[in-house]
Amino acid sequence: AQRVTQPEKLLSVFKGAPVELKCNYSYSGSPELFWYVQYSRQRLQLLLRHISRESIKGFTADLNKGETSFHLKKPFAQEEDSAMYYCAPAHHMDTGRRALTFGSGTRLQVQP
Amino acid sequence: DADVTQTPRNRITKTGKRIMLECSQTKGHDRMYWYRQDPGLGLRLIYYSFDVKDINKGEISDGYSVSRQAQAKFSLSLESAIPNQTALYFCATSEQNNEQFFGPGTRLTVL
Q1: For residue range B57-76, what is the model confidence (pLDDT) as tens digits?
Q2: Which residues on B lie below 8 Å from A104 (Cβ)?
Q3: Nearest residue on chain A to B1, judged by CA atoms?
Q4: What pLDDT sits at residue A68?
Q5: Are B98 and A43 a contacting pair at CB < 8 A?
Q6: What is the C-alpha to C-alpha distance for residues B80 and B82, in angstroms, rounded to an integer?
Q7: What pLDDT is attached to residue B100?
């Protein structure tokens, strides 16, 4: 079955430590990949997308087609990075339409 | 960001009742989506619509129906609510680039 996997439900690090949130997908073809973030009491919002190759709030994500992974990384975590992070490939549904499927999410806790 | 709004924000209802959740957007996007969020399961797609005349089932459409009344409005109905439909429901919109903009969510409890 096609799916997206975020193996860690909770990732707890100290401020200043490196962070890597894992995402693996099993969709055929070339999905377009996104990371979404939900801060406490805020709406779910786009963090970054792989085609833009941007660094947003210090986060980067590289698409590894060989490993079918799209891990989110930041070299030095900040307390304000504490949030729920979702990996979301956009892929063709059964209808032929392209839509997002969200992973189960990883909660990042950055301790002072 | 009030571009995507959802009503009601909270609702408690009883098993068997018909419930409608409404979503409105002022972003001018053609595409609209309904998701439910459950702890440990992330967001799952219920229905999506790419324009007013286009309705598609998502991953978990059983027990739900939708209506796209206009470009700006997309309603989700539970014809006969059951307790396992207790969840947080999100509406979202997008253009063709798949960047989705989410509403604040509706917390639904079915007793």
Answers
A1: 998 999 999 999 999 999 99
A2: 40-42
A3: A43
A4: 87
A5: no
A6: 7
A7: 92
B37 φ, ψ to 5°?
-120, 125
Q: What is the pLDDT of residue B9?
A: 96
Query: Which amino acid is it at B9?
Result: R
**Residues A6, A105 contacting (CB under 8 angstroms):** yes
pLDDT tens digit string along A52-110? 777 789 999 988 878 789 999 999 999 999 999 999 988 777 767 778 889 999 999 99
Closest residue of chain B to A48, computed from CA coordinates: B99
Which of B42, B45, B100 has its CB closest to that of A104?
A: B42
- From CA B97, how far away is CA B23, in angstroms rounded? 21
Across the A:B interface, residue pairs with CB atoms under 8 Å apart total 51
How far from the centroid of its chain's Cα atoms is residue B36's Cα? Answer: 7
A45 at the B interface (CB within 8 A)?
yes
Integer Cα distance of B110 and B94 in angstroms: 29
- According to the 3-state scheme, what is the secondary structure of chain A? CCCEECCCCEEEEECCCCEEECCEECCCCCCEEEEEEECCCCCCEEEEEHHHCCCECCEEECCECCCCECCEEECCCCHHHCEEEEEEEEEECCCCCEEECCCCCEEEEEEC
Chain B positions in Cβ-Cβ contact with residue A43 (cut-off 8 Å):
1, 102-105
- The owner of tokens 């419930």 is B19
